[in-house]
Amino acid sequence: MKKNRNIESIITKALWLNGLILLMLLGSCNVIKYIPADEKLYTGAEVDVVADKSIKGKNQLQYEIEDVVEPSPNKTIFGIRYGLYFHYKSQKEGAGKIIKGLNKRFGEEPVYLSDVNTKRTEQIINNRCENTGFFYSEISSAIIEKDRTASTKYVVKVSQPYLLETYVYQRDSTAIDSFIEASLKDTELTKGTRFSTEKFKAERQRIDDILKNKGYYQFNSEYLIFTSDTNQYDERKYDLYLSFKKVAPQEALRPYRITDVDVYPNYTLQANDSTKVIDTTIDKVDFIQNKLVFKPKRLRPFITFEPGYLYNKQRNDITSRRLSSIGTFQLVSIRYERTDTNDFADLGELKARILLTPAKKQSVRLEVQTVTKSNSFAGPGLIGSYQNKNLFKGGERLDISGNISYETQIAGGSAQNLSSFEFKLLNSISFPRLIAPFKINPQRGYLIPNTKYSLNYTLQQRARYYNLNSILFSYGYNYKSNRFTYWEVNPISINYTIVNKQTAAFREILDGNPFLARSFEDQFIVGGTGSFQYSELGEKGKKNRFYFNLGLDLAGNILGAGQDLAKADNQLLGLAYARYIKADIDLRHYLKLWRESQLVSRVFAGAGFPYGDSQSLPFVKQYFSGGPNSIRAFRVRSVGPGSYNPPDTSGSLSFFDQSGDIKLEANVEFRHPLYSLLKGAAFVDAGNIWLWNENPAIPGGKFSGSWKQEIGLGVGYGIRLDIQFLIIRLDASIPLRFPYEVGGTHWQQDYAFGQKDWRKDNLIWNFAIGYPF
């Protein structure tokens, strides 16, 4: 059992610690007084790349040069050298344990001008220039000294780079030469390519991958060598020649064929001969296990090679990736052993052994939580889960989880004593194969599709208002077609919702808002959902990365069309059912700026169109705006729809009123490192939601031509503790522009940070787990 500490206590202690550190950091402005009289503190280097405007790659070259200039100065936060301050303070006689502890964690040795070797740095810069084709660069340096500090400046004058004229492979007459020759048609080293050692390395690796997929198991890219010749040209051009090193061994220049494939589904490092070994052969592949852990017929489709195939790195990688994706195995290893003895034979032989170490089959987890939200709700929660990763010995995964939570709103006035109780039971079973009336070729594709069945139940009790019971059944598939794209299709999705135990106060709300009453009807939601995702977030080295998600939700279409033709009532088992079309797009761009800093932007657009007897989307399908993952300058569900301004924004009525059928949102966030695991982010959020149809109870909520005037806007700054697998985030923000008019204008007119009441209404804190996008 894992019990979380009280969130308020954690935040209080964190703020106390941060305050203590802040006081010390403020004193670090005076670190200059600690610098020895015969030294000057080194504050960094400036790099100026001088080049003709016609030369391409100047900005990239400057970035690469800045990355190799040494030494790096002491770190700063907003100009404060905190690490240096702790170092100096800890050296003083009588330094306390706190200072010594902070120095051990954050302290840095000072970097002085005497540590700078400009001549060596000039050589490093020149080497980087030559590796990127800028030969004969003129590099000069200067030291800029002040009273107690000093910096350096490097001026790099580059001329026209060397460009490729011809690229030739100096071939022999062996079989491997024909493959290399044929591969050159797809090379990126075309005429006009700037000289670049990195591109040459990439070309060798590209050829190595091609040969590995042709059976050349023992080939290595290091056996290839490039030479260049500039003597034939008066201009800055070069010819490039590719050949083999003389040390290339004979066994690396021939293909290898697989003669045996043995699979060990229950492999461990400790040998166990006390039980009987089960040996099963399916399609030439032998399965060996001391007891039945995984059914061979279920495992065989994941293996993309067999005896008689030439070695193929791509098939090897696909097999390894597929086996890992099942989730049943903790470790997947594919090993090859040579079985031939003649190094000069035309064809070598390999035996493949697929070693699969099972993960723990079953797990149980129980967790107690204390939750606080930006809408002033707080309370305890209990989460329990059970997981079986190999239910029927075919990689089937059973997930059962339950969530019980109680929340009460900690606020004054009409919002006082609001509370809710929620119970969720989530059940799903997924099969690592396609269960459908049609077939696919399992040898193709990045991964094998998964089939998933889900049956969920939710009970929500909102005190003083209603109880909501919801049962959801879905059946569908998910499939990763390559490392970037992911598909999920649920052709069957049935949601049965009953709202009961409605109080007089809640019925009064519904009576005054017929549209809201329709969204809280007992009803079926029968239809299907689908989504397509493209993500480059795993490509950490790319300067520009994109994420795109398209979602589609259809309900009541086929059922409604059939009943329309039959002129029957739009009911299912005596209950109304929803009819709508809903689609949304989430587009994100991640721009790498320098080192760990990046600019992240996001645009979200979504709309749901209710039709037929449906005047609005079901409440559970509507859009909301505001909160830690939305417009952070406004509390959860407190934005819109349109220019609507609830008469009592601190009360409970806005919870029901502020939802919509259309949503537009945009965010920009500048993320940058502060120290070690601590990150910072400055952000701007904008957006709103709207209704598709006019609702007299919510004036100004309908989407119209004036929607641009109804955009809410906020700015803020956040601190994030990034420990890779967990990100803890605290964001503070204020609204700049309201969706509705205040005093005849949408813009914030008074920034009274010194007033407690103003801060209470306008300084919004969001505590959350994970990045907002």
The total count of helices amounts to 14
User: Pairing-aware structural class of the strands and helices?
Assistant: alpha+beta
What proportion of the residues is helical, as a percent range?
10-25%
Q: Judging from the principal axes of the Cα atoms, what is the shape?
A: globular
Radius of gyration: 33 Å
Q: Tell me the strand percentage band.
A: 35-45%
Mean pLDDT: 84
Distance between the termini: 30 Å
**What is the makeup of the main sheet?**
20 strands, mixed
- Unreliably modeled segments: 1-28, 411-416
Beta strands, count: 31
Secondary-structure blueprint of this entry?
Blueprint: E1 2-3, H1 7-27, E2 41-50, H2 58-68, H3 82-91, H4 97-106, H5 118-131, E3 138-145, E4 149-157, E5 163-169, H6 175-183, H7 197-212, E6 224-229, E7 237-244, E8 256-264, E9 278-282, E10 285-289, H8 296-299, H9 313-325, E11 329-338, E12 348-358, E13 362-372, E14 377-388, E15 397-409, E16 419-431, E17 450-462, E18 466-479, E19 485-500, H10 504-511, H11 514-519, E20 523-535, E21 544-555, H12 557-565, E22 571-572, E23 575-577, E24 580-592, E25 598-610, H13 653-657, E26 662-675, E27 678-690, E28 712-722, E29 727-742, E30 745-747, H14 756-762, E31 764-769
Protein described:
- By secondary structure, the chain is an alpha+beta fold.
- 18% of the residues lie in helices and 39% in strands.
- The protein has 14 helices and 31 strands.
- The protein has a 20-stranded mixed beta sheet that branches. It has a five-stranded mixed beta sheet with strand order 9-10-8-12-11, with helices on one face.
- Helix 2 packs antiparallel against helix 5 and helix 3 packs across helix 4.
- The longest helix is centred in the first third of the chain and has 21 residues.
- The radius of gyration is 33 Å and the shape is globular.
- The N terminus is likely disordered.
